[in-house]
UniProtKB/TrEMBL annotation:
InterPro entries attached to this UniProt entry: Ferrochelatase, Ferrochelatase_C, Ferrochelatase_N
UniProt name for this protein: Coproporphyrin III ferrochelatase
UniProtKB keywords: Cytoplasm, Heme biosynthesis, Iron, Lyase, Metal-binding, Porphyrin biosynthesis
Protein residues bound to Fe(2+): 185, 275
Catalysed reactions, as listed in the record: Fe-coproporphyrin III + 2 H(+) = coproporphyrin III + Fe(2+)
Species: Leucobacter chromiireducens subsp. chromiireducens
Binding site for Fe-coproporphyrin III: 57, 126
Family of the protein in this entry: Belongs to the ferrochelatase family.
Chief place where the protein resides: cytoplasm
CDD domains per record: Ferrochelatase_C, Ferrochelatase_N
Pathway participation: Porphyrin-containing compound metabolism; protoheme biosynthesis
Task performed by this protein: Involved in coproporphyrin-dependent heme b biosynthesis. Catalyzes the insertion of ferrous iron into coproporphyrin III to form Fe-coproporphyrin III.
Length: 365
């Protein structure tokens, strides 16, 4: 059977966006933090992270590489599906991309949101964003669907496992004796609770990925490796509880407990954007060095072959379901596939919050 992506006539890669040069940094940060109550001091601090890299986030180039890799995989499989790219917080903005796509005749879009795990920040906020873009465009908007969260896609998990194995091999004596520190973006406890209302929560999604990778590593090593899940990049009011432990505190605790080598595995991120490039490669690696721990940072899934192949498989499966064909869905771990359409009330900012902000590809509140 030849593969095809109908009823979709374009793939939208929808991402966060980031500054390209010094003058972009403050306007970008204002876009990101509008209405979020993030203290000025935190903004200045995060601005410094960007200035440390010449005012430029690596995220835009990484998204262009992702687009190119998806195009290449689609072409290899002889599937006609143009790939376009739009962001929430910086150029090219999603609304502009969608307007152009529609002008070129695109009627129905499948969207890949570049966050693997479901939470307000990684999913509902994108659904709100896409609904707002659709409203703004009116009759000039294509119909938009969104791919389900892909954290437990076997390709994503495999690509993370490969990267961790490679990082482990780069340590003196190899991965044997290393502690695996899985890392993801921290979120407020209230956002965590809200993520768990209609299905497994943000933390539980990561714990499931960790369990699968731990099991694979244990099988290869002949014995389990110790591991843990830690968090980076917390912001907001310091009095507000966010998911812990912070990766730096955790590394210090591991040193106290006698750990001498670690692999830092950023399973929460798909590319080496600022959270990885600064919060892990500058801060966390420095913390490890200060405590005499040998550390290797595993790569993100980036454009690794199993990841890209898995994404294209997911897109074709979704397209088939939209055509009315039941197709088998393969997932890693114990949680199963998330629904194509997010259930009512899923992934709010807080579990007690009903904002009435419209969303697409999810039932409205
Ligand atoms: C879960 C999650 C992901 C998903 C993981 C993923 O998709 O990879 C993610 C991605 C990203 N977050 C990013 C940047 C920022 N996030 C901020 C703020 C926040 N993030 C949060 C959570 C997440 N964020 C939260 C709960 C806040 C607090 C305010 C709010 O509720 O929104 C702020 C404001 C300053 C600060 O507070 O740090 C910035 C600048 C970039 C771009 C990086 C680059 O430029 O390379 C990316 C990909
Ligand atoms: Fe963020």
């Amino acid at each position: 059977m030849t593969e095809n992506a109908l009823p979709y006539d374009a793939l939208l890669v929808c991402s966060f966006g980031g500054p390209n040069e010094t003058d972009d940094v403050i306007p970008f940060l204002r876009n990101v933090t509008r209405g979020k109550g993030i203290p000025e001091a935190r903004l200045a601090e995060v601005g410094e992270h960007y200035h440390h890299f010449g005012g430029r986030s690596p995220i835009n180039e990484q998204n262009l590489e992702l687009v190119a890799a998806l195009q290449a995989e689609l072409a290899r499989r002889e599937i006609t599906l143009p790939v376009v790219w739009g962001n929430r917080n910086w150029h090219p903005y999603t609304v502009d991309t969608l307007r152009d796509a529609h002008a070129f005749g695109v009627k129905r879009v499948i969207t890949l949101v570049t966050s693997a795990y479901a939470s307000y920040s990684g999913s509902r906020q994108y659904r709100e964003h896409l609904a707002a873009a659709t409203t703004e465009l009116g009759a000039a908007a294509p119909e938009i669907d969104i791919l389900r969260p892909f954290f437990n896609d076997p390709g994503f998990v495999q690509a993370n496992l490969d990267a961790i194995r490679e990082a482990g091999a780069s340590l003196e004596g190899g991965i044997a004796g290393a502690h695996i520190v899985y890392v993801t973006h921290s979120i407020p406890d209230t956002m965590q609770d809200a993520s768990a209302v209609t299905g497994p929560g943000y933390r539980e999604q990561h714990e499931d990925v960790r369990a699968v990778i731990d099991a694979a590593l244990a099988q290869e090593a002949g014995a389990p490796l110790p591991s843990s899940l830690a968090y980076c990049s917390r912001s907001g009011d310091p009095r507000t509880p966010w998911l812990e432990p912070d990766v730096n505190d955790h590394i210090a605790e591991l040193a106290q407990a006698g750990v001498t080598k670690i692999v830092i595995a950023p399973i929460g991120f798909i590319s080496d954007h600022m959270e990885v490039a600064f919060d892990l490669d500058v801060e966390a690696l420095e913390t490890a060095a200060e405590h005499g721990i040998a550390a290797a940072r595993a790569g993100t899934v980036s454009v690794r072959e199993p990841f890209i192949r898995g994404l294209v498989d997911m897109i074709l499966e979704r397209a088939a379901r939209e055509r009315g064909t039941e197709v088998p869905v393969d997932t890693a771990g114990s949680l199963g596939a998330f629904p194509d359409v997010a259930p009512p009330g899923s992934c709010r900012m807080r579990h007690d919050e009903v904002t009435g902000i419209p969303v697409i590809a999810g039932a409205d509140d």
